[in-house]
Amino acid sequence: MTAQAATVFCRHWRPLPLLFGHLAAALLLASFIWPTGHELWRSLDQALFFQLNGSLADGGDWARFWAWANVRASDTVAALIILATLTFSGLGLQRRQLQPALIGFVLLMVLMFLVRRSLHEWAVAQGISGPSASLVLQPAYMLSELAPDIPTKDRSGQSFPGDHAAVLLCWVGMLALNLRNKLLGLIPLGLALLLMLPRVVGGAHWASDNLVGGTFTALVTLSWAFCTPLLQRATDACWRLLRPLVALFGRLPLLGRLPFFNP
Asked: Do the domain assignments include residue 146?
C-alpha cells in the first residue's frame, strides 16, 4: 500500500493563484454590494425571473414538470450525476484517481459548507440576504399553488447564497481542474447550469444567489483546494484509513468489476 493517494487537488502551496482566486471572489461580491452593481444584478434577476417564471402562467404539464423539478427528491438526480463522475473513469477523472476523488469530494463539501455558512451569516448580518424572488416580485406564479399536490419548493426567507449552486460549481471546478483538456469542463458546467434552473424558475432563488453567492463560495473553496496542499493531505490521510474497507467491498462479485473498486 502506497503512502499517498493519487493527486486530485494540489500538493504544494501556490500563493499567487490563491491570492487571485480570493481577489476574483471579492470583486464579484463587491459588484453585488456596490449600489450601482446591485441595481444591475437585480435588473438581471428581474428580467430572468419574469421570463422564466412567466412561462408558468398557463399551468398545466409545464408547471407540473417544474414543480417536480423543485421537490427535494429531485436533488438525487444531481447527486447521482456527481456520484457517476466519481465512480467511473473517463467522465473527468482518471481511473487511479477515483477512490481518493470520492473521499476528497466529501472533504471538499465540508470546506464548501464552512465557506457558504460564513457567507450566509455575513450576508444576513449585512442585510444582503433577503426573501426570494417569488416573495418580492409580482406577478409571481407559485408552483405550490399551480400544483398543490406536489411538495415543491418555490420560496425562501433567506435565499442568498445559493446552496445547490455552490455544490454544483465546486463539482464542476474539481472535474475541470483535473481534465487535461480544460474545454471539456464546459460540459459539466452546462449541466450544472441546467440543474440550477429549477430554483430560479420557481422563484426560490434569485439568479444572483447562484451567479454571485454560489460562484463566490466555489471560488474560495476551490482556491483552498487547488492552491494549497491542505485538502490533498487530508485526502491522503482519509484514503490510508479507508482503503482497506474499500478493498473489502471491492471483493464483492459485482462491485469488484466497477472501475472505482479496480483502479
From this structure: yes
How far apart are the C-alpha atoms of 33 and 25, rounded to whole Å?
A: 13
pLDDT tens for the 263 residues of the chain, in order? 455 778 999 999 999 999 999 999 999 999 999 999 999 999 999 999 999 999 999 999 999 999 999 998 888 999 999 999 999 988 888 889 999 999 999 999 999 999 999 999 999 998 888 899 999 999 999 999 999 999 998 999 999 999 999 999 999 999 999 988 878 889 999 999 999 999 999 999 999 999 999 999 999 999 999 999 999 999 999 999 998 888 888 788 877 778 888 77
38 in a structural domain: yes
Residue 1 lies in a domain: no
* Helix orientation angle between 163-176 and 75-87, rounded to the nearest 10 degrees: 20
Q: Which domain holds residue 173?
A: 15-248
**Measured distance CA(249)–CA(241) in Å, rounded:** 14
Half-sphere exposure (Cβ direction) of 59: Cα atoms closer than 13 Å: 6
Count: domains in the chain: 1
46: in domain = yes
pTM for the whole structure: 0.92
